[in-house]
Amino acid sequence: MTQDNLSILVGSKNPVKIAAAKHAISQYFPQAQIDCQGMHAPSLVAEQPMTEAETKLGAINRAQYCQQYAKDNAIKVDFVVAMEGGVDQFDHGAATFAYMAIIHQDKLSIGRSALLPLPSKVYQALVAGEELGHVMDRLFNTQNIKQKGGAIGLLTQGLATRESIYTQAILLAMAPFINQSFFEA
Known about the structure:
Elements: E1 5-10, H1 15-28, E2 33-38, H2 52-72, E3 79-90, E4 93-104, E5 107-112, E6 116-117, H3 120-127, H4 132-140, H5 150-155, H6 162-173, H7 175-178, H8 180-183
Parallel strand pairs: 1-2, 1-3
Antiparallel strand pairs: 3-4, 4-5, 4-6
Helix pairs in contact: 1-6
Family: Belongs to the YjjX NTPase family.
GO molecular function: ITPase activity; metal ion binding; nucleotide binding
Enzyme class: hydrolase
């Protein structure tokens, strides 16, 4: 990997996820020319993951799919980044969050975003089989909020957004790659 040119493959075509990956990694490599592309990558979990374990697995599955795609097609990729949003019930109530899976040189690093508390009626709609973005669109009279500020933006009055939370989680998940000597066994 050179710091002059970096290639990032994101396991989603969602512009929020692509922007978060590029923004986070560019902070570690401010002089680099970064090519950041998104692609469809199946999570192999439910459309709306309802547990931490399922959410983390979705992110890992997406990252591994992208890594295999790049290998099969002889595409040079410095970082594969995948994100999966989910919800779970915690001691303090229902919350939404996202897991990040980053692969660099065949090594996997996992990160997780902060928790955003969810109103009970939102969580109940998710338990009934709806997807968070659709529930939030209905509740706040928005359209396709998941490709914009997300539930996070709506519930924090724009002080945090889906992209800002993903960016922060990716920054943290990059730590093993930025400080490799400390993380080697």
